[in-house]
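In the previous chapter we treated chains in isolation. Here, by contrast, the input contains two separate entities that must be folded as one system, with a combined length of 227 residues.
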Amino acid sequence: GQQLNQSPQSMFIQEGEDVSMNCTSSSIFNTWLWYKQDPGEGPVLLIALYKAGELTSNGRLTAQFGITRKDSFLNISASIPSDVGIYFCAGQLEGGSEKLVFGKGTKLTVNP
Amino acid sequence: DSGVTQTPKHLITATGQRVTLRCSPRSGDLSVYWYQQSLDQGLQFLIQYYNGEERAKGNILERFSAQQFPDLHSELNLSSLELGDSALYFCASSSNWGSGQETQYFGPGTRLLVL
C-alpha cells in the first residue's frame, strides 16, 4: 500500500530548542494532517493542511503543505516538557480512497 | 476532548473469546473509522463506515467485523481472539468525508489485552 516516510523516528532535545520533523512520499496528497499522541491516549489533531504551499500555525506549532504535494513538515518552536509524545503525519491521497495514510510517527523527548 | 467516545476504556479477555468495542462519533459526523495500534506501532486502518454503509476496508482480519447503526454509533466485533490481537483500538470520526478535505478526530481508544 501507499506509505508515508516520516522522519526522524525519534528526537531527544533540550527544553527551549526548536524541533522539525517531516513526512515525504512518492505519491501526491490532497490533505496533510498532523497529530500528537500521548501514551495510552488517542491521537489529537494539531494542524490540518488542504492546499499546496499552505503554511499554518497553532501556537508554537507550524506546519506546511509541500509545494509538490508530496511532503509536509511540522516545526515546534521553544519546546517545553509537555511537548513530549509521538507525532504522526497523515495524508489523503489524490484520486484515491478517502482513507488516510499514516506515517510511523516521530517520538519526541524533551529534557528539562 | 475530541467529542468521540469509546467504551470500554480497558478490556481483558482470554484467547478464543469474542469482544465488542463501541464508538460514538462526534455530533453530526457521519463517517466512522476503526484503527488498530500495536505496541510501538503506527496506526493501522481497519475499516470505515459512512452513514451506515461500509466504505473502505483496510487490513482487517476475517475474524473482525464492524457495523454502524442508524444512530451512527459503531461497533467493532473481534472474535476467536488471539494473543496478537492485544492492542489499542481507536475509533475516529469525520464530517467531511468525500470533500477532499478529510479531517479525522480520534477517540480515547480501547486497550485490549488478550491473555
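Residues 63 and 74 of chain A are 4 Å apart (CA to CA). The two ends of chain A are 40 Å apart (CA to CA). Compare these points with the single-chain example from earlier in the chapter.
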